[in-house]
Here is the input.
Amino acid sequence: MAFDILLAGGPSLRAALVELFAREPSYSLREVSTIQGALAGIDAANPDALLVSDDFGADDAAALLRAARLAGFGGPALSLYKGERQGAPGFDAAILRPFRFGELLLTIRKTLDQLPPPRALGDHSLCPVTQRLTAPNGATQPLTEKEIALLLRLSRAAGGVVGRDVLLREVWGYSGAVVTHTLETHIHRLRRKLEGISGRTGLLVAAQGGYRLSFEEDSVESVDTHPLEESGSGGNGAR
Here is the structure.
């Protein structure tokens, strides 16, 4: 699977890097020229890494990084700067322009290698930082922050059922008897994404007042054999 790189910069740098990245099958480059374009690109598919050049504008670079983080981008961000000014704060790495293309690739790879390893969900893998679920065939599905939180919480139960009140409390911070359809709405959207990327149904199952993950090849009809994890229960309950 190719790493998805989003580049925000001036026209000359974008043109040069588009040509160079086209020769690298391990990377896929998308280019943007505005903050709005970058946010649209992040919304369409959260990239693995973000490159921002100071010819994009020093103030715009800082604004873009802030907006990207607010939009849910959690991957590494690299500043490509020229002169003494080393780009805006908050970037994970900075490279002085002009640079050798090999140096850029090495820096990108180092920052990607520093990311926490993906979490295994059956034969799928989940990367909370880049907010992507990857199927065995290499297909990826972007996920929202809440969808990631739901998957991580459900995966902690190791196939057991997590109660609705537990999910509302630990993912949304709700307490007590709250009347809301927030959880059901998110579960519905997440289930559609899981089924779309895997081509299988029954990966996210409703049972016994809660939900459970079933990424293994077990039967959906077996859900009642799993104990319900409720508020105040031991094991993987609230801490």
Notes: Residues 218-226, 233-239 have pLDDT under 50 and may be disordered. The two ends are 37 Å apart (CA to CA). The helical segments are 11-21, 35-44, 58-70, 101-113, 145-156, 164-172, 182-198. The chain has seven helices and 13 strands.
